[in-house]
Amino acid sequence: MKKLGIIKETKNKWERRVALNPAAVAELVQKGFSVVVEPSDIRIYSDEAYAKAGAQLSADLTGCDFIIGVKEIPIPRIVAGVPHLFFSHTIKGQDYNMPLLQHFLDTQTTLMDYERIVDNQGRRLVFFGTFAGNAGMVDTLWGLGQRIKALHNLDTPFLKMKHAYQYDGLQDALDKIKLIGDEISETGLPAEICPLNIFIMGYGHVAKGCQNVLDMLPVEYITPDQLPAVEQYNDPHKIYVVVFKEEHMVARKDGGAFGLQDYFAHHDAYESIVHRYLPYCSVYMNAIYWEPDCPVFLPNSELAKLQDGKLIIIGDITCDIQGSVECTVKSTKPDNPIFIFDAKTGTHVDGLTGNGVANCAVDNLPCEFSREASDCFSAALMPFMELTLRNDYGLPIEESTLPDEMKKACIAHQGALQPRYQYLAEFLKS
Q: Is residue 422 included in any domain, yes or no?
């Protein structure tokens, strides 16, 4: 009988998510698997719920054949020789997690990553992204109301927003935000902040999550080229939303024609053109995948020109430290999500007051809607679990019976980086 271990999350007090919910565990038990769940006093589903589903509760996972978690598992808690699946945050060569990856190699322990469970077109199949967008948009709208009050001493309906985690789930948040939207439709927004233009950088799952929230408000979607006209003929009873695709964000350095596949293949041949639109931006939602060789879409040099102008707040959902939004110098937590960055001095201060632009950079946003996020994630992961648990990990990955999607997700096996991840060797050396 194959035994699955579900480790408890220890990254911080907010991490209440699970990779598999009790209903999924019950299904695995019915199929003949044994499931061991490490007890947790913060997990969104109680220990009792897992016990009722047929799981054994134990802090000892050493007898398991496979171990799963959500966020990075601390090195001392890795069970050597047992395959692990979690968000390792290593595939971009993140320096803070290279010791974690090296530990898997040194102990010849298999590491798999949800982020690389993808289809033949490279699209992620198991993800929390939509909920990151939901929570990131809610927290940013909360920060928007607070920052408008701090900057202009203006009361807006956004002051009725709460932190995402303070709502009784996602639907409760959407219902309450709809009421705020109704108020904006009736009374309008102060002229001092109009037109209120929200930029969404990207159009994937995270961006869709942002839009799910914004659709509760009286929004009008416009194209980047329509921004100058809106600036002249704005309606204070509306919020204007612009969804940016790569073609609006980058151009070839040599002046050649933009090509999406060309950009994906040759990031370094392109430069950011976002600065063309930034003077019109009130709220900048960063919801696009980024790699270190991509252009910096919002550099501090441009931010310095904007911080005394229209831009009020950045919602950096991607939260790559000093990445596509250069002023994201750190991550924040759900109960203290905002810091003010002064691009003219390069300094930052926590809270809602000070010179500069507000930045909401919570690094584990889906945990604010933990139940819904966990249920959705669990449903997406379950189709892969049976074959993944039954697999013989003594075989090379390409010769195994793993689903192709899980083969792609294997970063390290038997002490070696897998072919798709050989590039990480350079990051391990540095």
A: yes
Q: Total domain count for the chain? A: 2
Separation between Cα atoms, residue 77 and residue 149, nearest integer Å: 45
For residue 101, the one-letter residue type is L
- Helix, strand and coil in the chain, % to nearest 5: 40, 15, 45
Count, in order, helices (H) and strands (E) of the chain. Answer: 13, 18
pTM of the predicted structure, to 2 decimals: 0.89
Whether 355 and 376 share a structural domain: no
On whether residue 122 sits in a domain, the answer given is no
Tokens read off for 239: 């919020």
Which of 311, 331, 363 represents a domain boundary (last residue)?
363
Q: Based on the domain organization, do 195 and 339 belong to the same domain? A: yes
307 CB contacts (<8 Å, ≥6 apart)?
A: 342, 343, 344, 355, 356, 357
Torsion of CA 307, 309, 312, 316, to 10 degrees: -50
Identify the domain containing residue 11 by its residue range.
3-117+370-429
pLDDT in tens, the chain (430 residues): 899 999 999 988 999 999 999 999 999 999 999 999 999 999 999 999 999 999 999 999 999 999 999 999 999 999 999 999 999 999 989 989 999 999 999 999 999 999 999 999 888 999 888 999 999 999 999 999 999 999 999 999 999 999 999 999 999 999 999 999 999 999 999 999 999 999 999 999 999 999 999 999 999 999 999 999 998 888 999 999 999 999 999 999 999 999 999 999 999 999 999 999 999 999 999 999 888 889 999 999 999 999 889 999 999 999 999 999 999 999 999 999 999 999 999 999 999 999 999 999 998 899 999 999 999 999 999 999 999 999 999 999 999 999 999 999 999 999 999 999 999 999 998 6
Among the candidates 363, 397, 419, a domain finishes at 363
Question: Do 27 and 149 fall into the same domain?
Answer: no
167 with 264, same domain: the answer is yes
Same domain, 356 and 374: no
User: Do 108 and 189 share a structural domain?
Assistant: no
